[in-house]
Amino acid sequence: MIRSTQRQRTYWAVTGILVAAVAIALLAGSRSKAATIRAARPSPAAVSVVSVAAEDVATYRDYPARTYARDLVEVRGRVDGYVDRRAFEIGSDVQAGQVLYVLDVRPYEAEVERARGALAQATADIAQAEATLLKARQDVERLDPLVKEEAAPRQDLDNALAARQAGEAAVVARQATVAANRAILRTAELNLEYATIRAPISGRIGDSLLQVGGLVTRTSPQPLTTIVPLDPIWVRFQVSEAELPLFQRSTGGSLPIELILSDGAVPPSPGHIASTLNSVNTKTGTLEVQARFRNGNHAVLPGQFVRVRVRTAERRRAMLVPQRAVQELQGQHSVLTVGPDGIVEERRVVTGDRVDQRWIIEQGLESGVAVIVDGLQKVRPGAPVTARAYSEPIAAGGR
Questions:
Q1: How many Å apart are CA 307 and CA 236, to the nearest integer?
Q2: Of 8-12, 40-44, 229-233, which range is least confident?
Q3: Other Cβ atoms within 10 Å of 324 Cβ, number
Q4: Distance CA 94, CA 90 (A)
Q5: pLDDT tens for residues 189-248?
Q6: Which of the four pLDDT bands, split at 50, 70 and 90, describes residue 1?
């Protein structure tokens, strides 16, 4: 009887131990599962948001453009001759009147000396003719009263009158010869001047297409070099037919306009629209507009691809969001917003003009809405997020 009681006690002890072990195992499994669930559940994503507020802003439009020089000049020789010296550095800035080339001037110096000699001879001849004419006039004055008093023969007076007429004709001929020789001398002097080729305008000079020792000819189809004026610099760009009234009204400088270089830099001097062409391109439906910009430091060169930014209007109480906050899918624009409960919501919007790095939102947003700017790839509509204020990056240049 005693042994039976001991066996029962042992049985219940072992059973209790087993039950306790199972309970402990179940409790540990439950805690592990809860920890696993907590580990699998993601924490809310961190995003940056901006609070939309109404602003008064100016609107702009950008146009691709290209710079050009309106008054490019080809430098050519006016006289023939061999190049003795080139007096400029290729690609340098030159001033109007600066010496560019010097030809062999010896033939032209000889022509000047010969023309001066011929002019001196013609001047001496006219002096002699005037002296002869003076004597003939004196003979006529002396013989005329004597012939009237029959103190001298009539023939002597007739001879004196003929000599006076011949002297007058000789003086006129000699005067014409002097005028012709003066013209010949002037031509020779001009040719001597032309043997030194100077810059006709100020600007940046190009490559020399004829080297020292080369022959310059007046009839050559190839110029010696070219000069492009860099201040002002001109820009041409295309606008659509719908925009024509805006640009036609602004011709003459009433429309603010900026030049933006390929690196984003904006020259300090604004430009103005100088002219529009007289017809619309029937293939593209666009009109060419030409604008002028000051370029005192010659930093902008002809042929550069640039952008022209035109200030088009003033907007009152416009809703703006950063461009990076706007998503586009199949022509539809949308933004992600964060509600008061921290849940992401998608909103369809209609965008308008661009202002700096922001879009004007015409429809879909109201003041005070928090729009997600950074972290768009980490969230989806309906997901909880942790929002912080967005900091606008500092622009490197331009708008």
A1: 10
A2: 8-12
A3: 14
A4: 10
A5: 999 999 999 999 999 999 998 889 899 998 889 999 999 998 889 999 988 877 777 776
A6: very low
pTM of the model as a whole: 0.61
| Helix axis angle, 106-148 to 154-194, nearest 10° | 160
- In tens, the pLDDT along 301-310 reads 888 899 988 8
Q: Which two tokens stand for residue 322?
A: 């950063």
Cα–Cα distance measured from residue 234 to residue 294, given in angstroms and rounded to the nearest whole number: 9
Please give the CATH architecture assigned to the domain spanning 73-100+198-228. Answer: Beta Barrel (2.40)
Q: Which two tokens mark 192?
A: 């001597």
Q: Which two tokens stand for residue 123?
A: 């001047």
Superfamily of domain 63-70+231-312: Efflux pump adaptor protein, beta barrel domain (2.40.30.170)
Q: Which residue has the tokens 């965008």?
A: 351
Tokens of 229: 């004026």
CB atoms within 10 A of CB 181: 19
Structure tokens at 297: 């430091």
Radius of gyration for the alpha carbons in the chain, expressed in angstroms and rounded? 48
Q: Count the residues in the chain.
A: 399
